[in-house]
Design goal:
By secondary structure, this protein is an alpha+beta fold. The protein is 43% helix and 16% strand. Strands 5, 6, 7 and 8 form a four-stranded antiparallel β-sheet that branches.
Length: 438
């Protein structure tokens, strides 16, 4: 019998063996995926075994007093004629991010029983009515900053700008969080929310599923740039997604995910080079805290958040310096600092908005301390809250934090700090603020 004839006679056995090998290979491949060994971005985010999210519970009397102190800021800084709130104590300007902090503070205050339904409805109605009337940058989207009294578009020094200074997709995404909460939980305000959104043109902001901001160049031209880095980008994209808008690429945590070992913890960072893309990657607490208390984490953001928290806890254990870092206003020049877990290739780096070194302004952030504690309630977060518990003026609100270098309070008092304190406390009592079903 020739080789060819033997091969023909054995073909059924060969096919069987080939199929068997293929099947075993497929099983192995599937097992690799299920065990997190596949060469996919999601697979490399191995879950930690010690993640422990604290249960909700009723607030203590002291915690309710903390919430009252935070609400004092908004009582003092609401502009009656417009219904907007100042970003910083007694400074008549606001970004959309800080306007969102105000709206979320109103929602939190209502849920905690600090204000009644009548005041809640009045504040929300007035603010939404004003937001619907704001002049838009190039007639498309809200400007980055407004005067809270005149409602003029302004620059970041609160000087009027006829053209405006552009829009921030991240800030707009943040504003959509309370608008989503209002639509789902407070239907009496749905019509007003629709009026706010009716004149917006989102097309130039959402290109191929990616968030884009607008800036004005020195020559006065408008330039559109991809906006958002790991943490902030995905957090903002979630609220756009709830509106049925295409943010498919900005939603993905893993497209530019790069791990850096900090204090023995593999921290998720953004691999996009600031020199090439013109934007810094700040690994800070805030976007992860907000994601947890507002939306509730998904399986990826929960893991990335836990690692950001654990690195800070381990730094404290290794250095004796209580650590809870975030972006914050400060009470002296340069007035705004990013205190980070990682940025620009350095761990525990502090920089200004322009990227200048701001190491002397490293601080423990009040809002980060409250946020991590209400989410995790560990022995370490208890230390954080005990440290910041005295950083308040009962008649004005919470200070932004305490400086590491000298232990002095950072006495900047802002809508964002006080809003996040209120949100975190409302989360502790009632769970995530955006809730569908049980």
């Amino acid at each position: 019998m020739s080789f060819k004839q033997g091969l023909v006679r054995a073909r059924s056995h060969i096919i069987f063996l080939t199929g068997l090998v293929t099947a075993f290979g497929m099983v192995g491949w599937l097992e690799g995926i299920s065990m997190g060994n596949a060469a996919t971005p999601e697979a490399i985010v191995a879950p930690s075994n010690d993640v422990s999210i604290a249960p909700t519970r009723a607030l203590t009397a002291q915690e309710m007093q903390w919430a009252q102190t935070a609400w004092k800021y908004f009582q003092n800084n609401t502009v009656p004629a417009t219904g907007l709130v100042n970003s910083v104590d007694n400074y008549p300007a606001s970004t959309l991010w800080d306007t969102s902090s105000y709206l979320m503070a109103v929602i939190a205050a209502q849920r905690l029983g600090i204000i009644d339904q009548t005041e809640f409805d009045a504040r929300i109605f007035k603010a939404l009515d004003t937001l619907a009337k704001l002049p838009l940058f190039e007639g498309k989207l809200p400007n980055k900053s407004y005067n809270t009294v005149s409602l003029q578009m302004v620059d970041y020094t609160n000087q009027p700008s006829e053209k405006g200074i552009g829009w921030s997709a991240i800030d707009i995404g943040r504003l959509l969080v309370p608008l989503n909460v209002l639509t789902w939980h407070y239907p009496q305000h749905t019509t007003a929310v629709k009026q706010v959104l009716a004149s917006w043109d989102t097309k130039p902001m959402l290109v191929n599923g990616v968030l884009h901001g607008a800036v004005v160049t020195d020559a006065g031209d408008t330039e559109y740039l991809q906006e958002g880095r790991l943490g902030y980008e995905e957090y903002a994209a979630k609220s756009f997604n709830l509106m049925g808008l295409d943010v498919a690429n900005s939603l993905r945590y893993t497209d530019f995910l790069k791990f850096v070992n900090i204090e023995g913890v593999e921290i998720g960072t953004d691999s996009r080079d600031p020199q090439q893309y013109g934007a810094h990657n700040y690994v800070v607490s805030e976007p992860y805290i907000l994601d947890g208390i507002e939306f509730g984490w998904d399986h990826l953001s929960q893991e990335l958040a836990w690692r950001v928290y654990k690195a800070q806890e381990k730094r404290a254990a290794n250095t004796g310096v209580l650590t809870a870092v975030s972006e914050d206003n400060i009470d002296q020049p340069p007035y705004f600092v990013y205190n980070t877990v990682f940025t620009d290739g350095k761990a525990w780096n502090a920089i200004s908005e322009k990227g200048a070194d701001a190491s002397q302004f490293k601080s423990l952030s009040t809002k980060a301390a409250f946020g991590w504690h209400m989410l995790y309630e560990t022995a370490y977060t208890k230390q954080l809250v005990e440290k910041v518990a005295t950083l308040a003026n009962p008649q004005r609100g919470w200070y932004s934090g305490v400086y590491e270098s000298n232990g002095q309070p950072n006495k900047a008092i802002t809508a964002n700090t006080n809003g996040i304190v209120l949100e975190a406390l409302a989360y502790k009592q009632g769970g995530k603020l955006m809730r569908l079903g049980r």
